[in-house]
Amino acid sequence: MDITKYQDFAISHFGDFGDTNLLVTAFTHRSYLNEHKKTALEHNERLEFLGDAVLEMVVTEYLYSTYKEPEGILTNWRSALVRTESISAAADREGFEPLLRLSRGEKRGSARAREQILANVYEAVIGALYLEKGYEAAKEYITKTLLPTFEEILRAGSWLDPKSRLQEVVQNKDGFTPIYKVLSEEGPDHDKMFVIGVYVDGKLVGEGSGPSKQSAQVSAATSALKNYV
Q: What is the CATH number of the domain that holds 214?
């Protein structure tokens, strides 16, 4: 293992980092241990667990102290800030990719799987930073790397659930309200699969499926939003 690149990363991002092995663990995926049982002793899931709690606390504190909106809206905003897409993008901007320790199989994984891995590593790095330097250092890093994206989340309305967001976008652009229709349903009552289309001014703009009408509607709305980006 080339520990130098982790030391360089620590210096450039945090100024110094006493326990470099802690940082190495933050970048170590569970799959890596299967192929390096003699040299890798721990994966990052415990640090991820810790970092997730620190991340949620920092974001909650920021939203509570900055905005006066009711609890429901603040909860939705927090969810948008700490969701996989948001924190994996932060990890990508911070140059985490070359430091990931993955199995050969995981290296060939899908883009969505890599996004999830990066999000988990971001949380693990926060956990490692919290242990090494304390809450204020972790807060400073989150404030610098993640919180600036909140303005774009507000501007794009991406904190809304897909159905609410689609309705807002369609009404603003086309002046219509989306209508959902069941296109098909298959399977026994205990194992139904619904296919639902969402229509705007009589035109099919998205289609989705799910085990309930609600989940299929969300899937259809998500599909339709791609046509309005």
A: 3.30.160.20
Residue 77 belongs to what domain range?
A: 4-156
Q: Are residues 63 and 150 in the same domain?
A: yes
**DSSP state letter for 109:** -
Active-site annotation holder among 48, 52, 94, 115? 52
Of 48, 94, 106, 123, catalytic = 123
Q: Kindly calculate the radius of gyration of the chain based on its CA atoms and give it in whole angstroms.
A: 21
Q: Both 16 and 127 in a single domain?
A: yes
186 is catalytic: no
- Identify the sign of the CA torsion 31, 130, 143, 79: positive
106-127 as b/e: b if 16+ CB within 10 A: beeeeeeebbebbbbbbbbbbb
Q: How many CA atoms lie within 13 A of 52 on its CB side?
A: 12
Q: What whole-number distance in Å separates Cα of residue 193 and Cα of residue 128? A: 43
Encoding tokens for residue 54? 């620190």
**123 is a catalytic site residue:** yes
Q: What is the pTM of this model?
A: 0.73
Residue 197: Cβ within 10 Å count: 20
For each of the chain's 229 residues, which pLDDT tens digit applies?
Answer: 678 899 999 999 998 888 999 999 999 999 888 878 777 788 999 999 999 999 999 999 999 999 999 998 898 899 889 988 899 999 999 999 999 998 888 888 777 788 899 999 999 999 999 999 999 999 999 999 999 999 888 877 666 678 877 887 898 888 899 999 999 999 888 788 999 999 999 999 999 998 889 888 988 988 898 887 6
